[in-house]
Amino acid sequence: MRASRAAEQTLRSATLSPPQQYVCRACRAQAARQFHTSIRGQAGLPFFQRLQQQLFGSKESEQAEKSRGAKKLQQVEDLKQRGSSNQLEVKVAKNGQQYEVAAVVVPNETTDYVQALHGKQLERIGSEAWVKARADQGEQYAGFVPKYRWEFSNKQWQMLLHHVIVEILTLQKAGRVPGDVCMGRRPFANSWQKTRKAQLKANTTGTGVAVSYPFPAVEERVLTAIDSSSPAESTLLQQSLTAKAESAVFVAGISSEGPAPAWMNVSIKDPSVKMALVKRILQITGMRVPDYAISSSTIADLYNRLRRLERPKKIAETEQLQRLKINAPNVNVFPARRSSIDKEKDIGRWKVIEEELVRRNLPVTGRRWGGVKATSL
Amino acid sequence: MATKRLKTSATLLCDVFHRPAPRHSAPMATVAPSTTLAQSQAYLDAHLISTPTARPTSARSIPTSTLFQAQANPFIQTATVTTNAFPSFEPRGFATYPSTHLLLPLRKDILHRAVIYEGDMTRQGTASTKYRSEVHGSNRKIRPQKGTGKARLGNKKSPMLRGGGVAFGPHPRDFSTGLQRKVYDLAWRTALSYRYRQGELILIEGEVELEGVHENSAERYLKDLLKYNRMGHEHGRTLFVTRNIREGLYTALEGEHMGKQARAKDCADVDVKDLLELGRVVMERSALEYILGKHEEDLAPGEKLNAWSAVAKRAAYEERTRAGHNGDALPMAA
């Protein structure tokens, strides 16, 4: 390096115009001495010997390669003795900074090591995203709302509301808190099928609605299925839960589509019941019950706010136009634009016109084209 | 800059105006409730239902007589809002507010006025040009009045000439306009009512803060949170409104491209336009009550939030003592 630096300096001083015109003999002699064009180590060798060494190698180069290979093998042996491949050797540089020595991988011995075919397969390090990913501490978000969201039809909403309110009433009857409905379920409990058999009736005192099962054992099973000791259902169980919901809901429903049936006249003024209902619906469907729907006083009101109104297929069937028939009986609404042909048809003259046009070999409908004698209607 | 601001205001207002009405709209505030119910339809369980906490009255407020008790307004209904936990968004309880605050009918004209007023108020107004008197140059007449065959000209600072002044160009000025305080307050509550009706107002009990999350993972954690709850860019973005500055949340939202996911504002910084702009508003309960309490100038003293909450609590107590609490069966609807 020192020789190259000196050579560079010499060349620079030789090529560039010197700051002063006069260069002394001693400086000129020094410049000439320091100027070399060949490698110092090989300078003394003749040309052919130098060429031979470059092509076939020399003893020194062979020895240097051997020592490097031995060093590598030694490193591999050290790694094997250390045991874990994740532990890298830590060295301290001259400036005191610690660094990890990269692992040495021998492809012949390491079976799980696959050499990359090109650079695209390799990990790119040093980018801002890579730095952020390394700095990330790895905290995972766990939310209450399920990841998916089910879209239910009106029939399915009825079934769902029936199932949830039956469970809540069953819990209340047993003296438990309605909020327990959001808790976990024992595996293979099949409470969806069991709640379908329950009926909601006005109780004997006439002040409220009570749930009744065909058999007491069914009610017991519904209660035992709600496991109060286990925590609220985790996300791992959500998939199985909603699969059950889907399967139970897709089975034949308990009532036909349309306005709310009579059993839905269950008051949900009690905030604990309302909260349990809202939370359970959110847990199952992933749908957040809108706040204006929560102010409903009965399940029928809630259902009417949540269900999808069947949109009329034709504009003529919409409520606005149905009202128009009553409010303005002199107004007619037609599904398509009225043409002169429609007007003639109303009068009853179109048959005659059509016959005459056909007789005269004229176009009955469509635009006029050149070469045809057109008669205006 | 000014034109851009107006354009975005216009597109925002178009979005509000031409948005299809919800299939089921909340009942109008002017419908009188059933006489069998208490005026606020207050509920029985105090731990789930809560009314706004009364703010301490200021020294400048009108002192009320100790014998005076605010009478219930029979036309005020109750808006029930679910309160959730953060960051899980698990429903925790209900909060009730009067219909004068969260069930107002949609008044597009008032919202328009408020948005334009805010836009005008926040204009920088720093565009500046030079009049011919301000342009640097001499006042020498550059050519004779007559005889040149060309138009007559005075000095070279004329607006007709290149390098001259601008005739009626912009100058730094204040663009702010006035809006009646009561109208502006009504606009605030109308915007919140609109969001409530659309189901886009989510209330958080407690603080909206990323607790237990390292600052290096806050951005990724918040992105996951928004994606999981369907509140991110694909679902129209979210505005977080907090009572005070939340360091963790605000720092997480300063990251690159996080503005496309969500925004966070202090309740002192938020505007009517901000409430209407993004897909939904996630608001701390304390922030909502602060905003509602600050923007009720157009209401009578008996209709303000403090007075209503006191009356509602009294009515709830009366309802509880009169009806009793039957845990055996749910009451049948009348």
UniProtKB/TrEMBL annotation, chain A:
State where the protein is found. Answer: Mitochondrion
Q: Name one GO cellular component term.
A: ribonucleoprotein complex
* The keyword Iron is assigned to this record: no
Membership in a protein family = Belongs to the mitochondrion-specific ribosomal protein mL50 family.
Q: Which UniProt keywords apply?
A: Mitochondrion, Ribonucleoprotein, Ribosomal protein
Q: What is this protein called?
A: Large ribosomal subunit protein mL50
Q: Does the keyword Mitochondrion apply?
A: yes
Q: Where is this region: Disordered?
A: 59-80
- Please state the span of the N-terminal signal peptide per the UniProt entry: none
Q: Which Pfam families match?
A: Ribosomal_L50
From TrEMBL, chain B:
Q: Name one GO cellular component term.
A: ribonucleoprotein complex
Gene Ontology molecular function: structural constituent of ribosome
Ribonucleoprotein keyword on record: yes
Give the span(s) annotated as Disordered: 127-163
Q: Does the keyword Ligase apply?
A: no
Name the GO terms of the biological process aspect: translation
Any Pfam family? Ribosomal_L4
Question: Into which family does the record put it?
Answer: Belongs to the universal ribosomal protein uL4 family.
PANTHER family under this entry?
50S RIBOSOMAL PROTEIN L4 (PTHR10746), LARGE RIBOSOMAL SUBUNIT PROTEIN UL4M (PTHR10746:SF6)
Name assigned to this protein = Large ribosomal subunit protein uL4m
Q: Which organism is it from?
A: Friedmanniomyces endolithicus
